[in-house]
Amino acid sequence: MPAPHDRNHSPTLLIIEDDDTIGRHLDTGLRAHGYATTWCRTGNGGLQAARTAPPEIILLDLGLPDADGIDIARELRSRHPDLLLVILTARTEEIDIIAGLDAGADDYLVKPFALSVLLARLRAHLRRLPPGHDDQETALRIGALVVDTRARTCLLGGEEVALRPKEFDLLAVLAEHAGTAVSREDLMAQVWDENWFGPTKTLDVTLASLRRRLAQGAAQAVPPANPPSISTLRGFGYRLESEHGISERP
Question: Would you give the DSSP letter of residue 224?
Answer without folding.
Answer: P
